[in-house]
Amino acid sequence: MNVKTKINTDVLVIGGGGAACTAAVAAAGKGADVTLVSKGKIGNSGNTIMIGGSYGMDGASAYHKFKIAEADPGFTKEDLFRSICNDGFNLSDQNMVEQFVEESPEIVYKVKQWGEEAGQRFKFYRPGNWDVTGRGMGTSLLKGLEKTGSVHMYEDVAIIELLKNKERVTGAVGLDLYRGCLIQFEAKEVVLGTGGYQPYSLKNTNSDMTGDGHAMAYRAGAALADMEFMLFLITAVEPNEMRGSILPVICTFRDAFDYDPVDRDGRKIEIPEQLREMEKTSEMCKLVHIYYYGKAIREGRGTDNGGIYFDFHRFTDEEIDKMFEALMDHFDGFYPRGKYHGNDILEYKRIIKEKRRIEVGLSSEYSVGGILVDENMRTGVPGLLAAGECAGGVFGANRVADAVTEMLVQGYKAGEVAGEAALTEEKTESSEESVKAVLEGLDRKLSGTGEIRINSVIREMESTSDTALGLWRDEEHLKEGIETFEKLEQTLEEVYLPSKTLLYNRELLRLLQTENTLLCTRVAAKMARMRKESRGLHLRTDYEYIDNEKWQVRIMSRLEEGQDILTTRKPVVTRIPLRPAEKVDYETFILEEELGMANMEEK
User: In angstroms, rounded to a whole number, what is the distance separating the alpha carbons of residues 417 and 407?
Assistant: First the structure.
């Protein structure tokens, strides 16, 4: 096993979506030589392509700085800051929230300008946001890279591992999937913009998330944080050709759309009325769905697929028609009439009118935790930065605001910091030992002689994640889950790959990705077991209260001599004090506290 090509650059950016693209643009803007590497097509892979909503800034910036007359100047940076911290159950590092709030307007507006130059459509909503499709965002990012003009781009190259020299990250080894050869990238600074991870069996449209950046950074010495917090959302289970579509939750955001949530026997799942209203007004509705629908599923009231039903028996055909007309009106100009990301809205309506109910599930949309970074996107490992969904710290225990904005503003910051640093640093070559370890690891995988195939490992990882790390957790299932994840990691060493070539070896790629996803899931389960309370998106049947006495802290993990070493620390506080040290009933808290930042979209 040998490296075929060596590429030298100032800044190596890994990823193909929003964080990676804006990082590349920003680093190049500082005068650095920049190389951008993506395992898919840049701007058309990962989660960016599947964006189904909005991104934006505070209304005051939109109104005063960018002269958008329709914006709401009453929604200020301070309002946005407080909403993120409070809705995140006070676990956000407030220096990270400040970076998000203060620096997002510039890059948000810049990306909009790129998109308009590329002929993309943006639809404005108060307070300061735009709706955009995933394809529109991808095209906008490509226009930004085109305008920059000096970024070297490598597509369909999967980064296998980071390289180091002593404590410093110095580059990475990539596998060119279509040429079947290895490329060694040498860099002064490396930026990860690789997205999140999803270990569950029900995938949604944001499904190309395998935790590659998390795992590579962790093995390189960085810490992971807040991995127990996973955001779930309503997802289609039927019809089969739409399984995984987020169309059902998009429906619930429309004022004209209504339904009754019912269990497998047709019994209504009761939700307090003021919380049902959040579906139309707040991102917090996703937490409400997890809590109440998840509780019904936990009690054995779920469908055979572990979901619930949207029930329409009390509506006439004419009323259902009006619901879907409003939905299609919303998508006009973004998709052909009656379509959403290729989904047939009219067929969805036909099934609902025929059966009067339709099955939905809860799938993982976004991993809130990630690589521990500071407000400059530094990981603490020299030469390594991370941004976007693969990083953690902004959203605490529950994501509100826009993940699209997060990836853009953090990516741009990481690129600026890396670009400036690269101009003054001396280059450090990767150690021979570091390169050799990567090559030997690949050799072992390709030469395995066991009888286990990677698909069986993936299926067991997913089913275990559903049980141990799903909507509601408990001590018994978390303990069993951790044991299973660790056993599966050992099983990976016995996986047999029928193809021994590097040329588009899909099973090899799946093995590499599963290794990374399993690492993330193992750490997440350990953090979930350690956190003996319910907070934000982490719900426990055996600790159903918020414990601000002991657990108003972030959990972090580092890899030391092959072991996960978990520690805690209080969130960084700059403006908003932490909650009083007391235990609070979870349901009372979400009912009575001033939570529920308004959707970044006018209804």
Answer: 15
